[in-house]
Amino acid sequence: MKKLLLPLAFASIAATSWAVTPLWLRDVKISPDGSSIAFTYKGDIYKVAANGGTAQRLTTQPSYESNPVWSPDGKSIAFASDRNGNMDVYLMSANGGNATRLTTNSTNEIPESFTPDGKNVLFSAAIQDVASSAQFPSSRLTEVYSVPVTGGRITQLLSTPALQISYSPDGDFFLYNDQKGFEDEWRKHHTSSVTRDVWRYDTKTGKHTNLTNRAGEDRNPVMSVDGKTVYLLSERNGNTFNVYSFPIDNPSAAKQLTNFKTHPVRFLSQGADGTLAFTYDGEIYTKKGDAAPRKVNIDLMLDEENPVKKYSVSSSSGATVSPDGKQVAFTNRGELFVTSVEYPTTKQITSTPAAERQPAWAPDNRTIAYTSEREGHPNIYVAKINRKDDANFPNATLIDETPLVKANDGVERTYPKYSPDGKEIAFIQDRRKLMVMNLDTKKVRQITDGSTYPERNGGFDYKWSPDGKWFVIELTGNGHEPYSDIAIVNATGTPKVTNITRSSYFDMEPQWVMDGNAIAFVSDRYGLRSHASWGSQNDIMLAFLNQDAYDKYRLSKEDYELRKELEKQQKKDKEKAEKEKSDKKDKKNDDKKEKSADSDDDTEDIVVELDGIEDRIVRVTPASSDLGGYIFSKDGENLYYLAAFEKAYDLWKINLRKRDVRLINKLNTSPLNFEMDKKGDNIFLLGSSSLKKMNANSESMTPITFSATLKLDPAAEREYMFDYVKQEEKERFYNKNMHGIDWEAMTKAYRKFLPHINNNYDFAELLSELLGE
Fold first, then answer.
1. Amino acid 8: pLDDT
2. pTM for the whole thing?
3. Which of 78, 367, 419, 705 could cross-link with 111 by S-S, CB 3.0 to 4.6 Å?
């Protein structure tokens, strides 16, 4: 039986292999004798004859290999690999085989060249600037080091960036292109202060000479075999990157050697016979002498790979608690999950390559609205438990998932939030306008016209009032951007936006508190402020919507207790009067009343007095600090907030009546989102790495654990991310006409490379090349 299975297994493996014409070829280097070309494809290094043919795969590790560099004799190739975590320099035979690790530093090391004698490999890495360097220390600004091909101690050659090193035949100097700043290396068509230049470095005197010294991009220099001519890639004459050359002693006499349009020429190198090799539009070309560039036709064999991977869910994003406090909805890697608060049982609600985010609970605890981009643009979907016998999402057997608006009308809808009674849903349309849909009639009304938020980054913070008749929003279209204010707008009738802060500082993160009689928000008006910088200190403020609530807040503890007793008695008298009135009604009206009581709460309408509201704004926190989240207790008596006075955030509490401040828990955490169940019995601290429940009375905390695994299709995910970037650029690029670029045609031109990418390194370069257009 074993003898029979063995050949069948090999036959199965062979059947999964097929020949492809590869695209998105990177890091192209022609061998010193001009006979072979090394390149990177799908994270491995290949070699092919300079005149084309079937490529030979030189590396087979699951890690990412790149940046092949030929030794002067053509017998060895140095390359970068992340098989031990970060990028290290390795050395292998030009025919493949076992590789020797040459560097072990914890930063990324990328080979640039061999020394002319072949005894050392030069590589770039951000390890240590010299003490005399005036350069800003950054991993983006590397140094040049040398390591023996036999391994051993590294030595620093230059303390400044020198990339794409190309030695002269006698080794007296080498060429390189600099890196002046943090600009992405795949940017195109710019004439900024950080464009690259080609330099000459004298290895004997240590002198650097700028050979190009112009505003545009000049890069990837190659020294000719006779040491007289410099070849380079340049964007001169208003063109895309093409191959140019100039005499080493007359850089101003540059001439253009190729005339490619639209896309850039990349990865220039030259063999001893004068053959130039480079890429255009993801394929390899060669050029010799005055002949026209010739495409190198390449075939290679690939084994079919299963793209689906299992991914353990260990973090959460956008977590939000159900009104009854028994479930938490969150997203991970663009999928929606719901977990039980008491048990680790977790249900995956969605399964699409697109991103699902911004979950919002309906009051029934059985419905969740969320944003999904599966239609190619953001729209709102609703997940609802199908069977009445299923008590919650984690244990549900059937879940219905439908779009809020079924037609794919191209309208962007994000940030859904149900009204307190669940009869309406609010959302942001076209990234700027607050809208409300009646769930019975499906009619939509506009609350804000977009002028309150002129940005295009997706939406703004808003919240329903407890009585469902108002919204509080962050306001940025107030004439003094980039600062923000807090505004309220009525949800019914003719909406009117009223700015209630007008501070010219950052007023943000509004919340309805004290049964809707006050609005809490964060402000930097008293602390260190972010004038032309970052890192302001904030305080928590209260804006009282009516004079009665403000007066109540200012009462002493004794007077406040008397006021509460009076209100309790008044409430009892009112309920007694209503009961007596109700007893006189017929049974039909009694039934209606009972039905209404089951569905509605006892929330009273909020009294909003706009006159003088600016005089009813108070500071709650006694000291400005770096805040990471806050919440008021249900009765409005206590404020819980995260403040960082040291390295991380800890939980603090203020009793608003006693004005005492104390540390509740040394959480040592990152910023968290605070939420409360409808009854106010529990407060939830929700972060990306941890979910916690705190009892509002005892202030004891218990962790919320979840257990889930999702299946991930990386290729489909990359395609979604590609479309997301395309759409975001279309919506947000500062020049509406995209500088004259046909964006649809350009993204189509880059989309064809997606099937040839199986890793995030290449995908990041693809997006950078696209954005560079």
1. 34
2. 0.88
3. 78
